[in-house]
Amino acid sequence: MHALETALETIEARLRFPASSARTMRIRHVVERLRVAPPGVSVSLAHAMMSTHGAPVMLDVLVVDDDELVGRAVKRLMPPDVSVRGTTSKPRAIELLRDLAWPCAVALIDVKLGRERFGGFDVLDVARAERPTVRCFLVTGSNDLEVKRRALARRVHILAKPFTKEELASILDEARPRPAPPPRDTLAECVARRALEWRLSPTQRDVLRVLVANEKRAHEQTARALDMKLNTLRAHLRAILERSGLPSVDALRDMLLRDSLSLSARGGPGSPP
């Protein structure tokens, strides 16, 4: 637990979160939940919470809006672990995107920039061509059909003004760096062990394997991957949850990922349980 406590203290100190802030409270909640986890899991997750310099990774965001007041308002909606660069002009936005030393992760781009009705699309095209790792979102308060047509052609999401703090947080959460998943072979061994413990059928074991290996896959996609009807998949999931005694699919994933991290810490597949 020392590594986890150190991670928490570092996060609070480096980002100067108040002790009562919502983010700090969430971190404390995670720490309390991990007190019962195996030692290898606790240490692995503690390191995942910290960067190589001992602090959490900041998320760098570019906000492009020709109205400076709107740009400031968007900045106030940002969580405390987000670093924002803002500009009101298209040339400056392109200049910032071409600064490869700046690790921009997300760009919120207003469609209309100054007198240019579609100026934001030029910024988007530069980002797509020269910074393909940047997640771009167009921002607009109009219902212009031509804007929607161009956005659809570029397959870019439109964030409608005015947007809420919760909508912004959802977009940023998707762009945050995630710890690398455990090796597939480790996960497979953990699935096999739990399937044996819970006395699952071969089909239920396959459901469990696909479910854990593809965290963001929807149930419809999982059913297609298994060549199975959706209702059949749901019936298998209910049976697995009943046999495991777990309350939800997320709890199921969490248990198997903890198993896998713990197994990796002990030396990987083939290690004694």
CATH topology of the largest domain: Rossmann fold
Structural class: alpha/beta
Largest sheet: 5 strands, parallel
What does the overall shape look like?
Answer: elongated
CATH superfamily of the largest domain: Response regulator
Strand content: 5-15%
Number of helices, where a helix is a run of at least 4 consecutive DSSP H or I residues = 13
Low-pLDDT segments: 14-22, 33-56, 268-273
Into which percent range does the helicity of residues fall? 55-70%
What brief labels describe this structure?
single chain, 273 residues, alpha/beta, Rossmann fold, Arc Repressor Mutant, subunit A, 3 domains, five-stranded parallel beta sheet, 13 helices
Structure description:
- With 273 residues, this protein is α/β, with parallel strands linked by helices.
- It folds into three domains: 1-56, no CATH class; 59-175, Rossmann fold; 182-273, Arc Repressor Mutant, subunit A (Orthogonal Bundle).
- Helix content is 56%, strand content 11%.
- It contains 13 helices and five strands.
- Strands 2-1-3-4-5 form a five-stranded parallel beta sheet, with helices on both faces.
- β3, α6 and β4 (135-140) form a beta-alpha-beta unit.
- α9 packs antiparallel against α10 and α10 crosses α12 (230-244).
- The longest helix has 17 residues, at 249-265.
- The two termini are 21 Å apart.
